[in-house]
Amino acid sequence: ILLCLMGCGTSQSPEVKPSPITKLSGDSELARLIESIRVKEGLIALASGIIYNGRIHSIAAVGTRKCGTDNWVTVKDKFLIGSCTKAFTATLAAILVEEGLLDWQTTIREAFPEIKMLPEYEKVTICQLLSHRAGLPKNLKGGQSTWTINYGFDQDRGSTPEIFRLQYLEKTVQQKVRYPPGERVHYSNGGYILAGAIMERKAGRSLDELWKKRIFHPLDISSAGYGPAAAIDPHNQPWGHYWDKSTDSFVAYKSVYPNFMGPAGYMHISIEDWAKFILAHLDSYPLNKRKLIKPSSLKKLHEPMDSAKWDIDINLGLNYAFGWFTKINEEGHHLIWHGGRGFAFNAQVVADL
User: Within a 10 A sphere around the Cβ of 174, how many other Cβ atoms?
Assistant: First the structure.
């Protein structure tokens, strides 16, 4: 069973206007259920999908695209899924390994023999980067995770996402690691950006091209893109919202997004298209010719590479595989999970393998 929830929210529960349930809301029963949750929790918008027995059971979306308006969301709207994007990045790596363009033990040095780097980065593998075991800081600039930071990129070299990713890598490998590679599990957005740069170098294509050809097209995903969709289409897509304590109200937000951070998060996608991707991870997407990915590769993505400890002294009951947190619950079920936040959106996906 899979449940994915996306919306914009706050720890408080302000009053929100009830939204109508129409054909554009998707499955009416699910829409009524999540509308009751949305109103109770004071959310601007909420979308949900349920997969059961290898098929999409129902999808729905309720609420408004922008606070204070009657511009209601539809089930086709594109929500930001933040770090849930990491599963797409790790899946792409597995596909490239199957194609022989990449190896799980490919190191940063092997991919970039010309770049000057500190010795501790020489043997860091893409496997360690994608499993948060490379010891990198969470983000390049002092651990901060904001798109307003000036990363000091050389614009004369170009401004495409792949050029910025390369410059991000060049800057990262000049900084000391937080932990020796392989010693701890330390969640790092930077690790995924570096992994994206390695894939681009080894495949000779941009990450955008690779995602489209290797994942989106085979799964018939047409809604995926980068950053808040409202930044591109403010009237027909949902805005992010944050809670302004000074006014005790929501503020709508549609900031421009730095695409170079794409491998780490901030993909937007419709709830149905996201469910298609999850079906592929449940090995039940009905492709005509072949599976998106081999069962052995799915097993690799879903199982932690070792029992390395987290960098915090709290028993989370979780490990991290490749693009997925993992957990064996009390009933013995193997769960994969990920959450995502960004630009005042919130996303969650849980799958029982």
Answer: 12
* 85 vs 28: CA distance, rounded Å: 28
- Mapping DSSP to helix (H, G, I), strand (E, B) and coil, where does residue 263 land? helix
pLDDT tens digit sequence for 3-49? 454 444 444 567 889 999 999 999 999 999 999 999 999 999 999 99
186 near 311, Cβ under 8 Å?
yes
Q: pTM for this one?
A: 0.93
Cα dihedral sign, 242-245-251-255: negative
Dihedral sign of CA atoms 60, 78, 320, 56 in order: positive
> Which residues share a beta bridge with 260?
none
Whether the CB-CB separation of 90 and 323 falls below 8 Å is answered with yes
Report the C-alpha gap between 109 and 126 in whole angstroms.
Answer: 11
Say if residues 35 and 67 touch (Cβ distance below 8 Å): no
- For CA atoms 279, 281, 286, 287, give the dihedral sign: positive
61 contact partners, CB below 8 Å, separation of at least 6:
25, 26, 31, 45, 46, 47, 48, 73, 74, 75, 77, 271
C-alpha–C-alpha distance, residues 66 and 71, integer Å: 7
Radius of gyration of the chain (CA): 20
Predicted pLDDT of residue 147: 55
Please choose, from the candidates 187, 138, 126, the residue with its C-alpha nearest in 3D space to the C-alpha of residue 324: 187
At 159, list the tokens: 């401004």
Q: Checking phi first, is residue 204 left (phi over 0); if not, alpha (psi -120 to 50) or beta?
A: left
> What does each C-alpha distance from 347 to 18, 267, 272, 350 come to in angstroms?
21, 11, 14, 10
Q: In this structure, is the dihedral angle defined by the CA atoms of residues 184, 190, 193 and 194, taken in order, positive or negative?
A: negative
Of 31, 61, 36, residue with least CA distance to 46: 61
At a CB cut-off of 8 Å and minimum separation 6, what does 92 contact?
199, 207, 210, 211, 214, 215
* DSSP-derived secondary structure letter, 13: -
